[in-house]
Design a protein that fits this description.
Layout lengths: L10 E4 L3 H12 L6 E4 L2 H8 L6 E4 L2 E2 L2 E2 L1 H8 L10 E6 L4 H9 L4 E4 L4 H13 L4 E3 L4 E3 L13 E3 L4 H6 L8 H37 L3 H22 L8 H14 L8 H18 L5 H5 L6
Parallel strand pairs: 1-2, 1-3, 3-6, 6-7
Antiparallel strand pairs: 4-5, 8-9, 8-10
Amino acid sequence: MAKWRYDNVRAVFAVTNDELRRTVRQSLRGFGLRNCEDVVTVGALEGRLQLNDLDLLITTPELGGIDLGGLLQEMRHGRLGTNPFLIVVTLLDTPCPDTARRVVDSGTDDLLLMPLSTAQLVERLDNFVISRRPFVVTHDYVGPDRRTGDRPGNDTLLRIEVPNPIRYQVVANADGVPLEEQIRDATERLNVQKMKCYGGQINYLAGRIMAAFTETDCQANILPDVRALNEMGCDMVRRIAGTNFVHSIELVTALCALCDRLSEPNRKPKTAEIGILPTLAKAIERMLDEDPAAISWAKTALVF
């Protein structure tokens, strides 16, 4: 038996298989989970994730034969919709390790292997009422921290406490703060942590581009890293408004402009352009580390 009632939980079942979807619905209806809807296409799911009115998503790794990993990653990274923190439970029809790893990398909260029982599903929801894992934030992953202990080299891994919408709805706002306010506060912290992660990765990519160009001045050899650098820079520009890092937007914009030039088709990059990348990247990293000397020092990075 469930320990709680789920009448107020807002859920979406993103499952193509009609029989499986009916089974899940029937399993949870007896415990109050009636405020739910079905989606059977990726487009429909994307539309629902655009709105901040969900607490729970129950899905499978694919929808209509299309992998959902990228879509869920976009949601977790705050690039799709306004709530990166709804709880996601993924139903697996096979214990394939590659599939499981792909699902984990998408940022799902929990995995259940089918065929599943009502008791299993309700137990997982009951566990969410009690607690939720903090999220790990890296340059390419946002999602639950599944590690059982600290590992060498991960001392600086960034974690944030995130809203627990199921607990909020089931225990009648046990924390005393409106869910929308919790989501807004956690999103701001996610943005800050994300940008700090970008600082180190931008510096790493700039060094790699410099080394590759020194070895051979071929544009094709550096293009993938230049595009990755540009993508991070553009994401930083989107996140930076309203943060303590807004003073660094000129540097980040300059980085994106330089990457755009280096990516122009059939254009031979200039040695001076490549040479400025590490300096510019280091300036951004220092500013994201809130180095007091970085702002004045960074002015030299804009001379190119």
